[in-house]
Write a structure and sequence with these properties.
This protein has 12 helices and 15 strands. The protein is an alpha/beta fold. The chain has a 5-stranded mixed β-sheet, with helices on both faces. The protein has a 5-stranded mixed β-sheet with strand order 13-12-11-14-15, sandwiched between helices. A 3-stranded antiparallel β-sheet has the order 1-3-2. Helix 9 packs across helix 11 and helix 10 crosses helix 11. The chain starts with 8 loop residues before the first helix and ends in a 5-residue tail after the last helix. The N terminus is likely disordered. Keywords: Kinase, Transferase. It comes from Micromonospora sediminicola.
Length: 401
């Protein structure tokens, strides 16, 4: 009896080999055909056929030569940057920042504009995306995906915004409007979740499949990474730690009335500034959220710089943060907690060590607590990474036969 032939197997192998070669070129830079063959375990003939196939698809290009011994120089190949572009957008209450990256991950365009006093969120995003693409020298039609980081809830089923406390004009139905306007795939993701994506890629959580990121900024938020994947919850509310009922703060009974929730009252920027002021580290008043977060971070940095004199500020802040961290960790038991956001970053290791000690003192779990490894625009970086992962899957080809 003859063996059963598996339909599509050669196609599947070609797809797997093509994808492996493209990933190698992204990771290691320009390579010769021979070197691609060595690294993938393919024969010289198969590697040459692979490179020719990728050239025909417009995914790789010759970028130079490598001098060898006898005979002609070997051609060097690299992923063609302009084969696709993505745009990441960080949307805040006061400003929107958009960056355009080519398929290699290189950021080739960036713009920033105000989001205040506008009744047209579609127009705001449209202008940011178009300007980012234009600054990169890319046609809008070449942008294969736009990922927006936004505060609030994103429905896991529909992908639409269901609640954004700081962006009252951002509402359900906005996703469809943006997709129609830009004529390209648009994805919303919670901003703190995107910060965790960036942290896993190139920050303090590299190589850690399970961790939580606690965002301490104007507000407080949480991202949960389990098995290397974000956990959103059934309604997208996983990580809305500001609403955690904690001792020491009144608990509002109706969140729709825009009252500050309990943990937010205890550990948000206003509370941090109040704690610092009580111990002599006062800052100028701040009304806007972005300014409030900066003022709070400024006070925390002053406390860290003051050494022992600033200890009481860090002790109190750690005690408050530990209530939220402990509540999360006693349920999830992650090995790592990353403190991020303006305040989390400003506290550095002095704050992280105190939070770690306090959590261990009040629970049975003992996660390692560290400060973020990223100093600039983690939300934007996470948005670009999320967009790139999806577009590379599309452009480089599926691994199914």
């Amino acid at each position: 009896m003859s063996a059963t032939r598996l339909p599509g197997t050669p196609r599947l192998l070609r797809a797997l080999n093509d994808r492996a070669a493209l990933e190698l070129l992204l990771e290691r830079g320009p390579l010769t055909r021979a070197r691609i063959g060595e690294l993938t375990g393919l024969s010289k003939v198969t590697a040459s056929q692979l490179v020719e196939r990728l050239e025909e698809r417009g995914l790789v290009a010759r970028v130079g030569e490598q001098a060898g011994g006898r005979g002609p120089n070997a051609q060097l190949y690299a992923v063609r940057p302009g084969s696709a572009y993505v745009v990441g957008v960080d949307v805040g209450a006061e400003r929107v920042v958009a960056a355009c990256a080519d398929i290699t991950g290189a950021v080739v365009g960036r713009v920033e504009q105000s989001t205040r006093d506008t009744d047209d969120p579609v127009g705001v995003v449209h202008n940011a995306v178009v300007r980012a693409a234009s600054s990169a020298g890319a046609e809008l039609s070449a942008v294969r995906r736009v990922v927006l980081g936004t505060p609030g809830l994103v429905d896991p089923q529909t992908g639409d915004i269901t609640f954004a406390f700081n962006l009252p004009r951002w509402h359900s139905g906005l996703l469809a409007a943006l997709r129609e306007d830009l004529d390209t795939p648009v994805v919303f993701e919670n901003d703190v979740n995107l910060a965790a994506v960036a942290e896993a890629q190139s920050g303090a959580a590299q190589g850690t499949a399970d961790f939580v990121l606690v965002w301490v900024d104007a507000g407080v938020g949480l991202a949960i990474m389990l098995g290397g994947r974000l956990h959103h919850g059934s309604s997208g509310a996983a990580g809305e730690i500001g609403y955690l009922p904690v001792p020491g703060a009144p608990i509002p009974r109706d969140v729709s009335k825009r009252a500050k929730p309990a943990f937010q009252q205890l550990a948000g920027a206003d509370a941090v500034r109040a704690v610092a002021a009580e111990h002599g580290f006062a800052t100028a008043d701040a009304v806007e959220q972005g300014v409030a977060a900066a003022r709070a971070a400024e006070a925390v940095r002053a406390a860290v710089a003051a050494g022992a004199d600033g200890g009481p500020v860090l002790d109190e802040l750690a005690r408050r943060l530990a209530l939220g961290v402990a509540s999360t960790c006693v349920v999830l038991d992650p090995p790592l907690v990353v403190l991020a956001g303006a305040v989390g970053q400003a506290g550095g290791s002095a704050l992280a060590e105190r939070v770690q000690h306090e959590v261990a003192a009040i629970t049975l779990v003992r996660p390692r607590v560290v400060t973020t490894g990223l100093t600039e625009e983690p939300i934007l970086r996470g948005a670009l990474r999320t967009a790139l992962d999806a577009v590379r899957d599309e452009v480089f080809g599926s691994t199914v036969g």
